[in-house]
């Protein structure tokens, strides 16, 4: 697990796990312009050589996200789609879910109630 701290004491915890051909990215805390680049780089460094085809973002413990977080998700969506894979989101926080819906991400990426269901759906899509 990696922890990124920024001025003001806010932080984002990141954990990457691989389930067969699916990379699960768990984020806890605040995803903003201070840390979005680090998340992107961690994902991009993990993909090569691991035979990963699908991506699941687990936002169960995410409390804030700004437009740079949305942009990071869209960029990873394009990357995964270019290799024939699928992307899913897990989100339980109603405010975060509303933000994701309002951003239009749900036109591209489905939201699931838990990681296991998200993994199951992306691997059978």
Structural write-up:
By secondary structure, this protein is an alpha/beta fold. It has a single domain (2-124), classed as STAS domain (Transcription Regulator spoIIAA, 2-Layer Sandwich). Helix content is 38%, strand content 34%. The protein contains four helices and six strands. The chain has helices at 36-46, 67-82, 94-103, 115-124; strands at residues 2-5, 11-19, 22-31, 54-65, 87-90, 110-112. Strands 1-2-3-4-5-6 form a six-stranded mixed sheet, with helices on both faces. The longest helix is centred in the middle third of the chain and has 16 residues, at 67-82. Mean pLDDT is 89; it is low at 1-9.
Oligomer: single chain
CATH homologous superfamily annotation: STAS domain
Major sheet strand order: 1-2-3-4-5-6
- Structural class of the helix and strand makeup? alpha/beta
Number of domains: 1
Determine the fraction of residues in helical runs and give it as a percent range: 25-40%
The CATH C-level name is: Alpha Beta
Low-confidence stretches: 1-9
Strand residue content: 25-35%
How many E strands? 6
CATH topology: Transcription Regulator spoIIAA
Order of helices and strands: EEEHEHEHEH
Round the mean pLDDT to the nearest integer and report it. 89
Taken from the alpha-carbon principal axes, the silhouette is globular
Query: So how many helices?
Result: 4
Largest sheet: 6 strands, mixed
- Assigned CATH architecture: 2-Layer Sandwich
> Which radius of gyration do the C-alpha atoms yield?
13 Å
N-C termini distance: 29 Å
């Amino acid at each position: 697990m990696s922890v990124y701290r920024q001025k003001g004491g806010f932080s984002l915890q990141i954990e990457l796990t691989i389930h067969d051909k699916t990379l699960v990215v768990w984020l806890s805390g605040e995803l903003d312009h201070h840390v979005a680049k680090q998340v992107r780089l961690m994902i991009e460094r993990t993909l090569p050589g691991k035979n990963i085809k699908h991506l699941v973002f687990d936002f169960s413990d995410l409390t804030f996200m700004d437009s740079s977080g949305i942009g990071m998700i869209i960029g990873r969506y394009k990357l995964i789609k270019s290799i024939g894979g699928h992307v899913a989101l897990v989100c339980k926080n109603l405010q975060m879910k509303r933000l994701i819906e309002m951003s239009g991400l749900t036109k591209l990426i489905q939201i699931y109630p838990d990681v296991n269901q998200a993994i199951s759906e992306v691997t059978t899509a």
